[in-house]
Amino acid sequence: xxxxxxxxxxxxxxxxxxxxxxxxxxxxxxxxxxxxxxxxxxxxxxxxxxxxxxxxxxxxxxxxxxxxxxxxxxxxxxxxxxxxxxxxxxxxxxxxxxxxxxxxxxxxxxxxxxxxxxxxxxxxxxxxxxxxxxxxxxxxxxxxxxxxxxxxxxxxxxxxxxxxxxxxxxxxxxxxxxxxxxxxx
Length: 185
Hints:
Number of helices: 4
CATH superfamily of the largest domain: HUPs
Strand order of the largest sheet: 2-6-3-4-5
Low-confidence stretches: none
Radius of gyration: 25 Å
Mean pLDDT: 86
Number of strands: 7
């Protein structure tokens, strides 16, 4: 908030939520009571790295959504947002979405400015609004951990000794025995 946000909300839960649908349902339940023109989320969290919460919020709120956004420009007079997003293979795609919309943005989308001391002091006085998850009626858990096991060690590693030439010959022999290299190749 010291960097310019008008308002902050912290949804306080009793326990850690590791289900993206539950996280999305809590945020969507709060957001549907508001009239936001644009909701921004990160592409994925650093802890679970699932990349699902943003698109799930958009689905629950019936909003158009763009993921992996690397550039965004509001076109308020047209009621749209123009975005550039990264797609597979390093390619880029340009889209225009009707507002209200949700964008899940890449971490390097902007260079944040250093906040002024007065903004930091105002943010410290103001603080974020804290609401309990229980006050929001919707919390949908769609996944749970059934079982976790450490995979058994089914093969041993092999350390090849000798000079570089001897190691290469040993490796070639192993590849031929495993069928990775055919005789005559």
